[in-house]
Amino acid sequence: MPRPGIEGERLSPCVPPLKARGRRREAGAGFVAALREGEPRAILFLRVDRIGDMILSLPALRALRARFPRTRIAVLASPSNQALLRPEPSVDEVLVLKAGRLRPLHLMALSPALRRRRFDWVLDPFPEEDPLPVLAALLCGARRRIGFGGSLRSRLYHAVLPPPPPGRHFRDLTHDLIRALGAAADPGPPRPVLLQEEHDFARRWLAQQGLSGSELIGIHPGGTYPSQRWPLAHHAALIRMLRAAALGRVVLLGGESDAASIAAIRRQAGIPLPALVSRDLRRAAAVLARCRLFIGNNSGPLHLAAALGIPTVSFRGPTRAGRWAPLGGPHRLLERPELECLGCERGTCPRGSHACLAGISPREALAAVTELLRESRA
After folding, report:
1. Does 119 fall in a domain?
2. Residue 12 in domain
């Protein structure tokens, strides 16, 4: 199938009525109308956000392909997450929206190319009132706009589901949209596809670092927002403890934006630490796939590790409980449940203390790592 971009009809249960264009209608009515038209020729799926969001959307894309096997499926992706779709068999084409503050202008420049593809449906799986995917849905020229309801989408979309509850896991709420179009009820695990050449790179790189045959612990210290990041000094202290306990060899992983954090950890740890700092997400994933355990914040690499079947130890601070938990197992999610501000969803700590993550000690993390490794070796 072409991939030019670089850069049964069941309704979802319990769908209450929504208001749209000044009159009441059943929220499921738009789905019924879309399905009566038969199998769409082309669908555009919007996923112009982050790595973890794309990983957790893979089951929905595969369910969409199974539901509509002859339909051309395209994804409008972001520069950071588009690499995950390169060998994805459920997707025919990947279009990339540029990053940065000028994204709306870039989207308008891309709109003629989107319209030329003559999409029948555009699927907007964003659960919040983000205006960018709404703009993309309007500009792509699709005959039917489908997504979650809200003040804006309920007026502009042809078929909407009620906004999901805060505790609904991101994988499941994304699949809810596909299930309303008749897809299977079980979304399945988000398993990314890695190529042989990427596995070959991982073997070569680890051999160059003298790590062939070692039990590896991958650590990613980054996160989109400062409030998501466990303190760097805690990472350095944990690494010293892991070395003293002879629990495995640590490999630091990150993108270019993580370079300064990784350098600080290496300096504070005071011991030689191999690090892969790369803009190539797929190569980093191949190295991660060879790790026995992963330690990191609630960010894309955490969900990538979980999707690869790697046990994880992670830290929850401002993110919602339930929505962003790593899938699969085994996992240990460390948090300070006694804090009333936990899950505030703020990019920076409004109290200035960062107690939700700073309060999780390296010794607690060491205990979780020790327990997980013991379980995985049993």
Report:
1. yes
2. no
